[in-house]
Amino acid sequence: SQELEQSPQSLIVQEGKNLTINCTSSKTLYGLYWYKQKYGEGLIFLMMLQKGGEEKSHEKITAKLDEKKQQSSLHITASQPSHAGIYLCGADNRGNTPLVFGKGTRLSVIA
Amino acid sequence: EAGVAQSPRYKIIEKRQSVAFWCNPISGHATLYWYQQILGQGPKLLIQFQNNGVVDDSQLPKDRFSAERLKGVDSTLKIQPAKLEDSAVYLCASSSGGGAGGHGTQYFGPGTRLLVL
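Output (structure tokens, whole complex):
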């Protein structure tokens, strides 16, 4: 079965700093989803990547899927307190199987 | 457009009691999912419906968990009897199906936080 490993598990950054979160899959990815979750709330969809080398951006968040489609990175530029939360990657490896999620990366942004 | 609705938001029960959660997906979404998220873990799929039929329930503990989606819209997830290890957040998600990835993007509700004492 497919497994996703996220790194780091947790991250504390100073406001204004850049950061990167990684998601590595044990199998080739058909689709890779990034979600954000705040404590006590559901998952908020950020981006979906499907093609090797694909890169998408939304506001100050950029996600990329590597050419071999086994790793994705999420980069936040000039972090703000509003970026704090848990970032989860979810994988779809055959298009007809349920999403498998990583354990998440907990991000804290301090002033 | 209204998002995925879930209720209740919080529930505290004693072990061996029963509990039910309700989910109303985004209008027009044919696919509905129930996930269990234990503290510190990513969500784990319990059951997936396509309209009112079950697509995947391989990870649903069927001796105590049951779910239905009558009329292909709302869904309920029931636990009977509950165990201590069922303490988790239960997330409902829906998607229009098809498109990239086969499912289409899944949109999640706020979840129901269950504590079993």
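Chain B touches chain A at residues 4, 6, 33, 40-45, 48, 56, 91, 93, 100-103, 105-111, 113 (CB under 8 Å).
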